[in-house]
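Researcher: Please predict.
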Amino acid sequence: MEIKLHAFDLKLKHTFSITHESRDVQPTLIVELCWHGKSGFGEATETPYYGVSMEKMIGQLTSIKGILPTDILPHPHDFWKLMSQHLLDDHPFALCAIDVAYWDLWGKMHEKPLHEMWGYSTAKNILTDYTIGMDSIEKMIEKMHEMPFPLYKIKLGTDHDLEIIEALRKETDAVFRVDANTAWTPEQTIYFSTVLKDLGVEFIEQPLKADDWTGMKKVFEQSALPIMADESCILEQDVQKCVGYFHGVNIKLMKCGGITPALRMIKKAKSLGLKVMVGCMTESTIGCSAIAQLVPQLDFVDMDGCLLVDDTISRGIRIDYGKIIYSKVAGTGAELIKRN
């Protein structure tokens, strides 16, 4: 098996701002695994907030070339186990990229989309939301009008969060979800939840710092809206911790280490009575096509990353007014159309 690494800078359609950072360009690394004339693709984005750099990921993935399969293809779960021994603890983004690439290759070798291989139908799929990053109220309204959608995820964490939602609500009847990105206090969250519920907000994502479990217990018991974990639920062992503190979990493939652990996290969360969401980073169609394979198992999905960038490097799934349209390609359905 051969591994090829492709680094790109994805230009964002708008400056993307959350409480942690703002950016106009998203560096991303595409991993290509080649086997008997077929290629599988996975993706990991440079993310300084999590200590993930392009140089670091390239070094990590270059270091495992010598342990890649050479004779037969092991099952993806066995491949992930092998890769995780070298990459999981410090390098989940790199592990995600190679795990997704391998699953994509596995599906292509079997000539089936992954969701079909797992026994799931896309006939009753949920819709994805579209993210409005933090900006002036005028700019946020402009972004919303530019992309009419039935669901919006609104990034908050300012001194005028309620004012933002009130202004946006005047412009659309769409369902809102809000993501405070750890910027609120317990008292703020509880108060905001009542107001936001009346403004047509569906749930609040990660309002408090990831380790504020005492505050989250209070919010869980008193919030008028469901609370979804993001930064508080990174790896598999975090799912159990969220019971009694959150109503659901938002799983990110890059943060947990790929499709393989995400499948286990989804199963575990459901068994514990938690709602399940899978979210994206600001990524290309390659990453979002992988998420699309999981959608039939989910309660919510946030996979609009490919809509936030000018993606000239890949193709796969498409999104039409929140509806996911699958490609006819096997595996994740993704293809790399530009190589460097």
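Model: The chain has a mean pLDDT of 96.
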